[in-house]
């Protein structure tokens, strides 16, 4: 049932009704009293399984998101997953996800948006570093990585006063990715901001390419993993490289356009390694992120559950 739900996201009501009728018909043909998962799957359109190379690319993309998000403390990583096949009826391009609890605080600062943009760029940067380029799955509909990045950078410049002026345009969401409709100076500022975040993300992942590859191979084989599993694999890979005389990756703030305050952000991969020590002694599932210092007298940032990142556009649940 989980597989069927994952691959019917975005279907119309009529399509779902037809699937239900066909599944019931399959159940009657085998003289069954109830509809089973097999009846539903047999009623679905043909699917294509991904090759090993495709699975690795998808896994690499999602690990890139998860690693950057973890280093920059962007929300709380819940887990990551990839799909291993795709329905011919799928309208989107999403084939994986890195799921986070709340990517932004209730009152986000400029640094919060920059961290989110950097995390969204993690998939593209990971593909470029390891495979020499990224796939078209990073773009497409409004829910995919690149349109989200463009919309966020546009809002920073043109709505929230984070640019070189304090003027705000109450732009509707449909025009946030229409760079051509923006004044030339705003379009250039949006591009410069995204470029700065791209350099920041490249600075985070390039020294950790071996870690990316190692964890991506595991995800390609396992298909999904919890944040605890992800953090352990990252810590193990870091230790292996240190034992070979390879130092840890550079500063997490490398290439940052506007780094978050170090007093409230744990920006080193050391947080992952130290966090691993908690995993062995915890009977229940541990906090998905290293503990963070409370923000001001009000305590920690309130968070709302969000499922994010598409390695692609989606018919999936970044």
TrEMBL record:
Transmembrane segments: none annotated. Pfam families: AAA_lid_3, Peptidase_M41. It comes from the Bacteria. Keywords: Metal-binding, Zinc. Residues 305-318 have a biased composition (Basic and acidic residues). Residues 6-41 form the AAA ATPase AAA+ lid domain. Residues 243-318 are annotated as: Disordered. One of its GO terms (biological process) is proteolysis. GO terms for molecular function: ATP binding; ATP-dependent peptidase activity; metal ion binding; metalloendopeptidase activity. PANTHER family: ATP-DEPENDENT ZINC METALLOPROTEASE YME1L1, METALLOPROTEASE M41 FTSH. This is Peptidase M41 domain-containing protein.
